[in-house]
Amino acid sequence: MSICIRSLASIANLGPGFDVMSLAIMEPYDDAYIELSRGEDRVEFIGNYAHYLPSDYKVTTLYPVIEEFRRIMGIDFHVHVVVKKNIKPASGLGSSGADAAAMAYALNKLLNAGLDYKSLIRIAALGEVAAAGTPHMDNVAASLLGGLVIINPVTGDFVRVDLPDNYWVVIVMAGSKPSTKEMRKLLPNAVDMNSLKNNSAYASMLVYALITGNREALGKALMGDAVVEPVRAKLYPHYNAVKEALLKAGAIGVALAGAGPSLFGIFDFEPSKERINELLHARGLRDHALIITRPSNIGVHEIP
Ligand code: HSE
Question: Could you tell me the CA-to-CA distances from 45 to 34, 69, 155, 173, 178 in Å, in that order?
Answer without folding.
Answer: 12, 21, 33, 22, 22
